[in-house]
Amino acid sequence: QVQLVESGGGLVQAGGSLRLSCAASGLTFNSYNMGWFRQAPGKEREFVAADRWSTSATYYADSVKGRFTISRDNAKNTVYLQMNSLKPEDTAVYYCAADRSAIATWVRYDYWGQGTQVTVST
Q: Among the four residues 29, 54, 94, 99, which has the most C-beta atoms within 10 Å?
């Protein structure tokens, strides 16, 4: 049974930083693309960042490029999202997801975590 468990969310002031973690189990972690998505109240789920397992290429939404960094530790079956220079508009529930081929399209991901709340105050 595949499980993805996010942690690291919380309340932070604008300009601050947080690091989210997503621990995976029940899958061959180093053979899965890992993605981060977010969903704010009343809005659709949106792509944030992804890491392609086969090439180690990383992808980012324009809104977070230069501020967020996705990375993975295959030995720990964990993917991270380092978030710097946070803005109030980054406030959302953040989800990690795993799939063999999907990158930025959330409906294509097979496995999802439960989400972790990130709130950025002014």
A: 94
- How many angstroms separate the CA atoms of 112 and 106, rounded? 10
* Residues in contact with 63: Cβ distance below 8 Å, sequence separation at least 6, in sequence order: 89
Question: What is the bridge-based pairing of β-strands 46-51 and 58-60?
Answer: antiparallel
AA letter at 56: S
Question: For residue 85, how many C-alpha atoms fall within 13 Å in the half-sphere facing its CB?
Answer: 7
Under 8 Å between Cβ of 23 and 4: yes
Q: Where are the beta strands (DSSP E) in 14-63?
A: 18-25, 33-39, 46-51, 58-60
Sequential pLDDT tens for the chain (122 residues)? 999 999 999 999 999 999 999 999 999 999 999 999 999 999 999 999 999 999 999 999 999 999 999 999 999 999 999 999 999 999 999 999 999 999 999 999 999 999 999 999 99
